[in-house]
Amino acid sequence: MSELILDADLRQRLNGGTPGTKICDESGRVVGYFLSADEYANLFASYTEDLDTPEAIEEARREMLAGGGVTTAELLDRFAKMRRAMEAMG
Questions:
Q1: Beta-carbon neighbour count of residue 35 at 10 Å?
Q2: Does some domain include residue 69?
Q3: Does residue 32 lie within any of the structural domains?
């Protein structure tokens, strides 16, 4: 993961951000979203909640290495879980 060092001005603006604050370039194109460390941890936990046993982790690893993945429905379900988790954070 990359690291970005914030100056005081940007830090102040991000601390006031709500979950999912858009980060845009000069032209207005969205390049990312700001999440606090707690929001990121919650989002990551909700995404990986079904990987709670060594067997589930191993199965996910095998699928990834075999070029497998998730269905569109499974991906949309995970996105919905992430959205609900972000909304619950307020």
A1: 19
A2: yes
A3: yes
What is the number of structural domains in the chain?
A: 1
Question: Which contacts qualify for 78-83: CB closer than 8 Å, 24 or more apart?
Answer: 78/47, 81/46, 81/47, 81/49, 82/43, 82/46, 82/47
Q: Which residues contact 38 (CB under 8 A, 6 or more apart)?
A: 89
Instruction: Provide the whole-model pTM.
Output: 0.45
- Cβ atoms within 10 Å of 59's Cβ, excluding its own: 13
Handedness of CA 13, 18, 20, 21 (dihedral sign): negative
Question: 19 falls in which pLDDT band (50, 70, 90)?
Answer: low
Domain extent, residue 44, equals 8-88
What is the per-residue pLDDT for 90? Answer: 59
Q: Is 66 a domain residue?
A: yes
Q: Which helix or strand (DSSP H or E) is residue 51 part of?
A: none
* Domain-located, residue 1: no
